[in-house]
């Protein structure tokens, strides 16, 4: 176990609290005008999956668990779970849907992801920050709306719904941030 400052906690980190391991789901540093800055953390207890709230002063030290962070190749999903393979050892790992959550829509065959494991159990998955998808359905382009700052809904080829600028049409490949499903730019490929 390593002690880290509370303000450095991020999504996917694993911390020990009250003798249990927890995966950080969200971490937010709050700096009020008066008083001490605090770090509010939403965590999932690994042993039973219960969500727990944590709150530390930003300068407090927190026990960060020693986890194995490796790149895995995504293979496929079935009733058992989501199957990943470590490219060096060809060791396969089955990850349940509750660990992956809403990131499952991003998974595609052969994709490389970071999996954090502790004693052979998957704790969290980290996707690439930016990914490219094709728009399969959106409202038609309206002349004269290209300069406005309004966005319109679009459906991507992986089934996700995102908001895109009005000048983007169906069939266009775009780059989105996986963190919040937001449009970044047109793909350059």
TrEMBL record:
Signal peptide extent: none
Function of the molecule: Involved in peptide bond synthesis. Stimulates efficient translation and peptide-bond synthesis on native or reconstituted 70S ribosomes in vitro. Probably functions indirectly by altering the affinity of the ribosome for aminoacyl-tRNA, thus increasing their reactivity as acceptors for peptidyl transferase.
Biological or metabolic pathway of the protein: Protein biosynthesis; polypeptide chain elongation
Top-rank taxon: Bacteria
Name listed for the protein in its UniProt record: Elongation factor P
Domain Elongation factor P C-terminal: 131-186
InterPro entries, alphabetized: Elong-fact-P_C, NA-bd_OB-fold, Rib_uL2_dom2, Transl_elong_fac_P/YeiP, Transl_elong_KOW-like, Transl_elong_P/YeiP_cen, Transl_elong_P/YeiP_CS, Transl_elongation_fac_P
GO MF: translation elongation factor activity
Pfam families in UniProt: EFP, EFP_N, Elong-fact-P_C
SUPFAM superfamilies noted in UniProt: Nucleic acid-binding proteins, Translation proteins SH3-like domain
GO terms for cellular component: cytosol
Similarity comment: family membership: Belongs to the elongation factor P family.
Main location: cytoplasm
GO biological process: peptide biosynthetic process
Location of this chain's protein in the cell: Cytoplasm
SMART domains in alphabetical order: EFP (SM01185), Elong-fact-P_C (SM00841)
HAMAP family with a match to the protein in the record: EF_P
Translation elongation factor P/YeiP central domain span: 69-123
């Amino acid at each position: 176990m390593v002690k880290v400052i509370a303000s450095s906690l991020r999504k996917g980190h694993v911390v020990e609290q009250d003798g249990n391991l927890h995966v950080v789901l969200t971490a937010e540093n709050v700096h009020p005008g008066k008083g001490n800055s605090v770090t509010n953390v939403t965590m999932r207890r690994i042993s039973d999956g219960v969500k727990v709230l944590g709150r530390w002063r930003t300068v407090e030290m927190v026990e960060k668990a020693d986890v194995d962070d490796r790149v895995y190749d995504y293979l496929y999903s079935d009733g058992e779970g989501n199957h990943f393979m470590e490219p060096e050892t060809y060791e396969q790992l089955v990850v349940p849907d509750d660990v992956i959550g809403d990131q499952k829509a991003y998974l595609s065959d052969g994709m490389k992801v970071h999996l954090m494991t502790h004693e052979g159990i998957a704790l969290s998955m980290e996707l690439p920050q930016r990914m490219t998808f094709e728009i399969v359905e959106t409202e038609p382009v309206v002349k004269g709306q290209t300069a406005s700052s309004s966005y319109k809904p679009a459906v991507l080829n992986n089934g996700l719904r995102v908001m895109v600028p009005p000048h983007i049409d169906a069939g266009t490949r775009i780059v989105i941030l996986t963190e919040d499903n937001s449009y970044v730019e047109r793909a350059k490929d």
